[in-house]
Amino acid sequence: MGWERGDAMTAGQDRTLLAAGMICGYAMVIGFTDNYVRVIAAEAGIWQFHFSRTVMAMALLALAVPLMGLRLRPVNLRAVVARSAIHGLAMFIYFGALAFLPVAIVAAGLFSAPIFVLLISRLAYGQRIGPVRIMAVATGFAGVVLVLGPSALSGASLAALLPVLAGALYAMGNIATRQWCAQESAETLVAGFFLALGGIGALGMLVLAVLAPMAAEGTAGFLLRGPVWPSGQFLFWTFVQAAGSLVGVGMMIRAYQLTDAGRASVMEYVILPASALWSWMLWGETLGLVAWAGMALIVAAGLMIALSARRAGQAAPA
Fold first, then answer.
1. Is residue 238 included in any domain, yes or no?
2. pTM of the model as a whole
């Protein structure tokens, strides 16, 4: 069962329900780890965080390769590099925007990705977009807006377009996962993703070390803070981020290899309720009735996609 026959195992088969399970697992893992970014951001900068996390993640991956028989050599190096650069840039814009924009606006921009997935799939690849998928995207995005509140639609500015750019790049990376990298192993794409982030982080640390700009105290200095001597708390939570991201991002990548990017991207909306659940369990942060209504719409969007895919699979000849 080698990955060399990835066309038959991934591109040729659409296993949406299994992909949905992968994305739910990814959402629970990432929802937990991302809740502790606030702890990391109070001490270090985004550049040092991503560089340190990459070093830890690659060390863990290097240990796992002989133990689990993983394959890191890419089938198509150019495709892996291109996808990694796109996804890495998307995540840096997302985390960087958090330094000067409200979380609601940043999250709403990133979760515009399913819309871009549909547009790119139709315009670039000529894929047919059915009414159920269009309705699912609209339903899921409406749920996101309800969860985030009115601030998600206010404060529009040039800076507020950055999260939307992150959403567009994230969509491109997700499409590339199946269209360009169907034959790659999940661990190959995870390694490429982390190396891209680590490379950008190292470059940013170097630039900030030379320029030495004044950075605000606490989380406000996340974007402009240069290298600092790491504390035990920073190292611990960055390690948790590295280990959790290896598992979570690996599950997400596998999901995009198992099903169409348009379906998987809508199911990713589940990360919002997962993050809210962890925020309540870890910090005691609660949501109102409107936010819960939004989560119900998000779940409904995922179910619409999964059930429509299942009916389509049953109708198709074996």
1. yes
2. 0.78
